[in-house]
Every structure is written in C-alpha cells, then in structure tokens.
Amino acid sequence: MWKQLWERRPGAVAGTAIGIFLGVIYLFFGFWDMLIFAFIAFLGYYFGAKTDRKEPLFPFEDTKDWLSDRWKMFR
C-alpha cells in the first residue's frame, strides 16, 4: 500500500511526512500543540499535493496580474 501511494503521489507523501515531522518537533517544544500540529501537517500535504500536480508553490503570475488589475483604478 505505501509503495503504491508513494508511486502515485510522492510530493504529497513527502510533504505530509515533513509536516508531521515538524509538527512532532513543535509538539515536543510548543504551545497550542494540536492546533499548530494540524496546521503544519496540512501545509506539508498542501505543498506536496501542489508538487504532484506540477503547479508552482506560489502563483506569481496570477498574483501579479491580479494586483496590476486592482491598481489600475488608482491611475
């Protein structure tokens, strides 16, 4: 099962594993443990899934276009 999952979605698996690892480190040292742990694990999954879909981690072009459209009304 794990090998098949790794072959299909390596970015999501790696991202989730890294997120869980960082979350465990935070649980050992931190405050509001479960909330932050869940957030870190989710971020790991999110960025890993974007990697699997071959999407950029941050859509610079879309953001640039959106900001330039918003600022046109002030010119």
Automatic annotation (TrEMBL):
InterPro entries: DUF2273. Keywords: Membrane, Transmembrane, Transmembrane helix. The chain crosses the membrane at residues 20-47. This is DUF2273 domain-containing protein.
